[in-house]
Amino acid sequence: MSDSMAPAKQSRTSRLSSTTSSRREDSLGVEQQSMASNNGAADGQEQDKPDTPKLDWSKFKATFTVKHSPIPKPSHKASKKRKRGAAAREPMLEENEFDKNLSTLYTVEPVKWWEDTRRYRKFTISTETFRLGDTVWVKPDDSETVDAPLQNWVAKVLEVRAASEAHVFLRIFWMYRPEDIPGGRRPYHGKNEVIASNTMQVIDALTVNGKANMRHWTEDDNDEVLDADQLFWRQTFDCPDGSGTGELSTLRKHCIDEAPFNPDTLLIHCDACGLWLHSECLEHEAIRQAHEENKLPEPILVPASQRSAAMSQTTPNGHVSHTSDIDVKTEESERGKIEPVFQTEVISGTDVKSQIILKDTREGHEGEEYKKEIHCLKCKALIE
């Protein structure tokens, strides 16, 4: 979701139309930002600015580009105050609410066109109103070929600008889908997970495809379980210039394999030693024991922490290629092993005893089920 990951041109859809929602009843389909706004990157309204743009916007054919500058030393901290004329070219500071360490200095070009717009607090598309700070779905480019659980892009609205009803722009931070970062989706990424970033871009307001209900999941021990359809973020990607390379923040690690947790799966807590256990690790251990008890060859099991899913990479020309990064076992290491003959399911809850259900798939044993108690993979204590 940078210049390489998110195309500069985004098609407008016929069903989207900008409608008037201004208290000033001006005709822009957006509400003018009040002087009391606390948005640091767009602080205050320029009182000496004319109500109508100076430039002929029918001739605007450019695409707004965000340029980034290095953060200066504290003694030379950039001002949040907006200045007119040549001073307006000075980089502005955008503090990142996801992570203060991801704050960025930016300028928007071409400057004369950007400075000719006015700032607003909200905008309306069809019958839906959006405000500063909202998380929104963004319609992908028509050339989008990434196979992802989330079909739309996700963005955080930082600023609303308009020159006319036909020229409404949003300055946004992208919320990356796992498929859009270098290396692609990791095994621990949930199907409704996005990654907060400081990658900034200016997009057409008419590419917005609806409001997204997103929450920050802190993954604390006492944090509530996410709903199945809840959009969330817990990780950040430091990539201000949108070059496609950047630093992905680390996550809390669990279980004996010391790997992050995929919230689409289960974590089982051992009260004896305090360790959180991946359900997949427990299932693999149950399969190994079942093979051994039935005098079967060792099963071929590859933990999620030792593999990654098929990943999508965006090339400089904007095309997406798919490659595989799955660890392939050598013939020597897999010699004598077989595919697991048992299917497993971990059962756990506040009103049920924790256990593993094994289903036999061998010929002559189809449908046979076995129940196994769950023991901690570290301290071997029984988990009720």
From TrEMBL:
GO terms for molecular function: chromatin binding. Residues 74-86 have a biased composition (Basic residues). PROSITE patterns: BAH. CDD domains: BAH. InterPro entries: BAH_dom, BAH_sf, Znf_FYVE_PHD. Residues 128-248 form the BAH domain. Residues 1-89, 312-335 are annotated as: Disordered. Residues 30-40, 312-321 have a biased composition (Polar residues). Residues 46-59, 322-335 have a biased composition (Basic and acidic residues). It comes from the Eukaryota. Residues 11-21 have a biased composition (Low complexity). This is Putative ebs-bah-phd domain-containing protein. It comes from Botryosphaeria parva (strain UCR-NP2) (Grapevine canker fungus).
